[in-house]
Design brief:
binds zinc ion; three-stranded mixed β-sheet; mainly alpha
């Protein structure tokens, strides 16, 4: 009986992980029980705890996982060698499989189910179809005009404090979340350095959320005017908006309602996004619309990326992320980044850039 239980438990853990991995998505149910139900409550508990720790918990967790993995495999191999039998090695592999299944179940329960919620385009009033190319260029020109107008105030006033201590940005973020859903609003996370910082640098990744600690990790090289938007984007992930475009949209909306420094940061990110989606002559037209101040900032971002990136690693990194997104059923993979422009252009807004929800709810 005890032996049967000892096998039954690990086998059912692996089976459960497989079943949840392939189960058909139920977006409405997931939105209800997880993304606006269980998840925000877990986040409100976990993020304040990880905020209290100055280092990235992610580093500790990945370190412990790596040591455990090597320990189990080396132990199994040694025993197999001593006994001249394969059984100990197979047992070690089985243990690794159970461990991986547990990690996957934890991932789903702590954050990962957010990939299966109802898409923003179905919860907000969004005009169907793609925006017209002229509208995209016009958005880039609008962004350039805002950057020109905000540059002085932004550089004069902002960035003295880290984004998670910027009261205006925090309030703006909370207001946006309240506008978007009835879930309790998420707690903003401090942007932490991580031992994976060099990898972020080489692969030109701005930041990520640790799904097991619900903490925000950032590229150590981010420039002061990049940080408010990156912070708000990661906070949107912490609020359960797993999709990249949705996180950028929420982050941008929060920046729009905050002080000039954060507004500048949001418009700069949107300008960058639009510039990457238009053709060469249009890109030149957008660049020409920038005054020297914002152009210097943009050049500084380009220089930051050029200085440190390893193109092959960047491509490999994005390919890996693409595979990760597809495994989590984001059909567009990394291309979903571009959808933020569609959301900005096609969503209906009330005053102060507040998107209008569907069904008046
Ligand atoms: Zn992101």
């Amino acid at each position: 009986m005890r032996v049967a239980l000892r096998t039954a438990l690990p086998v059912s853990i692996v089976l459960l992980a497989i079943v949840l991995g392939v189960a058909p998505a139920a977006p409405e149910a997931t939105e209800e029980w997880f993304s606006t139900g269980l998840y925000p409550r877990v986040q409100q508990l976990l993020t304040p705890l990880t905020n209290a720790v100055p280092f990235a918990l992610f580093d500790l967790l990945t370190g412990v996982a790596a040591v455990a993995l090597v320990g189990v495999l080396v132990g199994g191999a040694r025993q197999a060698w001593r006994m001249r039998r394969a059984a100990p090695m197979l047992r070690a592999l089985a243990r690794v499989a159970v461990g991986a299944a547990l990690v996957y179940l934890m991932f789903l329960l702590l954050w990962g189910f957010n990939y299966r919620r109802v898409p923003m385009t179905e919860r907000l009033l969004v005009e169907p179809g793609a925006p017209l190319p002229e509208a995209v260029v016009q958005l880039g020109l609008d962004a350039a005009a805002r950057l020109n107008a905000l540059h002085e105030a932004a550089h004069g006033s902002a960035w003295r404090e880290p984004p998670w201590q910027d009261a205006a940005l925090r309030q703006a973020f909370t207001a946006v979340l309240r506008g978007l859903s009835d879930a309790p609003p998420a707690v903003p996370g401090r942007l932490k350095r991580t031992v994976f910082g060099p990898y972020f640098r080489w692969a030109s990744i701005d930041g990520m959320v640790n799904p097991f600690g619900l903490e925000a990790l950032a590229n150590p090289d981010l420039l002061p005017f990049e940080r408010p938007f990156v912070a708000a984007h990661e906070w949107a992930h912490l609020a359960g908006y797993a999709d990249e475009a949705e996180a950028s949209f929420v982050g941008w909306l929060a920046c729009m309602r905050a002080g000039p420094g954060a507004q500048y940061s949001g418009w700069l990110a949107l300008f960058w996004q639009v510039s990457s989606e238009v053709n060469e002559p249009e890109r030149a037209r957008l660049a020409a619309a920038l005054e020297p101040g914002p152009r210097r900032d943009l050049d500084a971002v380009v220089a930051r990326i050029r200085r440190s990136e390893w193109p092959w690693l960047q491509q490999a990194g994005w390919r890996l992320y693409d595979r990760y997104l597809r495994a989590n059923r984001v059909e567009e993979g990394v291309r979903s980044y571009g959808a933020v422009v569609t959301l900005v252009l096609r969503a209906r807004f009330a005053d102060g850039w507040m998107p209008v929800r569907r069904g008046g709810g």
